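Changelog note: in this version the structure field was regenerated for every chain. One regenerated record is shown below for reference.
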Amino acid sequence: MKIPAPLALTALALLALAGCGPSPANTPAASDSHSAPQASLAALPAPTAAGQPFDFYLLNLSWSPEFCHSHSSSPECASHLGFVVHGLWPQNNDGTYPEHCPSRPGPTSDAVWQGLMPTASLAQHEWQTHGTCTPYDADTYFGLIRRAFQSVKIPAEFTSAASQTMEPPAAILDSFAQINTGFPATSFALSCGNNYLTAMEVCFDKSLKPIACTGVRSCRAKAVKIAPR
């Protein structure tokens, strides 16, 4: 899925334009160490808006080193991050998706998105493009992103990648499935561009329970290069 979006406030926001969907993507900031899948254990907040119909959520975790190879001046690049949050996107089982739903107020403060996304412009882009299609206000939507992200463990091989490596997509997907034992193996998809790893994607139902992905294309390359941190 590729989502065009005419937002270009910063180089990092351009990143969001290039990758809003299960395809090459990169964005903001995050930690490499997360707990076991806890997002589905607590009840979700009550809906606060009408939203649009959709089937599940897709969490996109971009591989920051690949983006920073050509955008070294972007804010995230000085920290040499690994996988970072791009967004949490409503998806349909047939591969379609709602986007740019009727406008609603954005986050009430920067604290809502800080630690997930590096700039207010990027957070606003994600809210306007995807969040407005959910049945939640902006603050609650970013809370869902945080919960989904914190439920995913990152394999150790990606926390200290000091030199470029190459792996088959199936091996990378398996490494995520092995460490995230509470997730179906098919919860994960891999995005690539020009035979480089660009993102991992994780599918959740609307209660933030990990589920098998449906209608999400994974990288078909025989092997992908993994840019070093």
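Spot check on this record: Confidence is low (pLDDT under 50) at residues 1-19, 22-31, 33-40. The chain is about 20% helix and 15% strand.
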